[in-house]
Specification:
With about 400 residues, this protein is mainly α. The chain has 3 domains: about 10-55; about 65-155, Receptor-associated Protein (Up-down Bundle), CATH 1.20.81; about 155-404, no CATH class. It is about 75% helix and about 5% strand. It has helices at about 35-40, 55-60, 65-80, 85-95, 100-115, 120-125, 130-145, 145-200, 210-240, 245-255, 260-280, 285-295, 300-315, 320-325, 330-345, 345-404; strands at about 10-15, 25-30, 45-55. Strands 2-1-3 form a 3-stranded antiparallel β-sheet. Strand 1 (about 10-15) and strand 2 form a beta hairpin. Helix 9 runs antiparallel to helix 16 and helix 15 packs antiparallel against helix 16. The chain starts with 9 loop residues before the first strand and ends with a helix.
Length: about 400
């Protein structure tokens, strides 16, 4: 009966003794201690010790990661495709003692045993899995094609995770180099250069222009950094004050205007929008419901605003292609493709194609940027260190000549 395992259920380890004096031990997933005791007594056991067991992930306040959900979806879809019933498939998954999230899968199995649908049981997990996975499972339950929907959800989640890793890898090295340059400036300005400045202050000879410029820059560096931070804070406060209800949207509109960085960010959000919407439509989810589901998954305020316009247009009986073509942030070529898909009745397929084309374009841009920025920042860092070294060593050579 649905309701036997609630959202607050937890795992309990127990040790009990039977009527023959034999000791038994194990674990149960239940709402509270009373349910465990009741279950043991129905088996003819007398509880000796019962304690609440926290999973490793719960101990560190970490839920199931996206990668874990991808692996779970892959295993489940393979077992279901092989003809193994859902409960038996979950039982096999929970039998893996080395799985750090075994308790989570066990709890999921107990809820389904209690009468929940798979989508409902996933919704009750804390934290719940990605909304896209839950939506695809719900679509599979409605259309009777659960295996394919879980497979597609795993594929798309894997693509999204792969894209995220590529994006992180593309920007990590340049950011580390930039951080290195800023660190060198900070160390030189606060500790190294003041020492040399005091050392050279006692010389009668005039310091070289390069050395004086380095000393002045070093003294002004903390002020420059503080001023930049203050300007950014004031800019953010102005946007919030002037746009109290839509400041996130206004901030994002300004952010996407930043060369390279803003373009990459916007393209990534558009790719995610097309990928999710295409897969949901192909899975049989009605367009209006698919738009609402994507609206709940996206983080971009610009995409949320676009989705609200699309939702309103669909409710009014309008086509979505003209709305996309009128959106400045949405690529015009993609809007043309969506129009073709809408007219041909293959809207979901066309959204997926747009997502793939834009993904290839973004990967190409990321590769070019990584290949360009890395060497430029490396040369810049080396040039900076060389310039400072020359500026510091030059007066030392002149001082040696002066002493002679």
């Amino acid at each position: 009966m649905k309701g036997q395992v609630k959202a607050g259920a937890a795992k309990f380890k127990w040790r009990a003794i039977d009527s023959n004096g034999k000791i038994h031990s194990g674990s149960y997933v239940a709402d509270d201690l009373k349910h465990v005791i009741s279950k043991l007594r129905t088996l003819g056991y007398y509880p000796v010790k019962i304690r609440h067991q926290l999973s490793l992930s719960a101990s560190f306040n970490q839920g199931v990661s996206v990668r874990d959900w991808i692996r779970f979806a892959r295993k489940l879809s393979l077992m279901l495709e092989a003809g193994i019933p859902l409960l038996k498939s979950l039982e096999i998954i929970t039998a893996n003692q080395g799985d750090l999230h075994q308790d989570d899968w066990l709890l999921l199995k107990e809820r389904i045993s209690g009468g929940y649908q798979l989508s409902e049981a996933l919704q009750l997990m804390n934290p719940p899995p990605p909304l896209f996975l839950r939506s695809m499972v719900m679509a599979g339950e409605h259309t009777g094609n659960l295996v394919r929907c879980i497979e597609k959800a795993a594929d798309e989640l894997e693509k999204a995770e792969s894209f995220r890793r590529k994006l992180v890898e593309a920007v990590t090295y340049p950011l580390l180099l930039l951080l290195g340059i800023m660190s060198v400036f900070f160390v030189l300005g606060n500790w190294v250069l003041p020492i040399y400045e005091r050392l050279f202050a006692g010389f009668d000879a005039e310091l070289p222009v390069l050395t004086r410029a380095i000393f002045v820059s070093g003294r002004q560096l903390p002020i420059v950094f503080s001023s930049l931070i203050a300007v950014v804070i004031v800019f953010l406060l102005l946007i919030i004050v002037l746009n109290p209800n839509t400041w996130k949207l206004e901030l994002e509109r300004r952010f996407i205007k930043i060369p390279l960085v803003g373009e990459i960010y916007l393209l990534g959000e558009i790719i995610q929008f097309n990928r999710l919407l295409g897969e949901m439509i192909e899975a049989g989810i009605p367009l209006l419901e698919a738009l609402n589901l994507v609206l709940r998954t996206t983080r971009s305020e610009l995409i949320k605003y676009l989705l609200l316009e699309l939702t309103l247009g669909v409710r009014q009986g309008r086509r979505i292609a003209p709305i996309l073509k009128n959106c400045k942030e949405f690529p015009s070529e993609a809007g043309e493709m969506v129009m073709v898909g809408e007219e041909s009745g293959k809207l979901g397929v066309m959204f997926s194609q747009v997502s793939q084309i834009l993904t290839n374009e973004l990967e190409h841009k990321l590769g070019r940027i990584a290949n360009l920025i890395g060497p430029v920042l490396t040369i810049g860092l080396a040039g900076l260190i060389g310039l400072v070294a020359v500026g510091v060593l030059l007066p030392m050579f002149e001082a040696t000549t002066h002493f002679k």
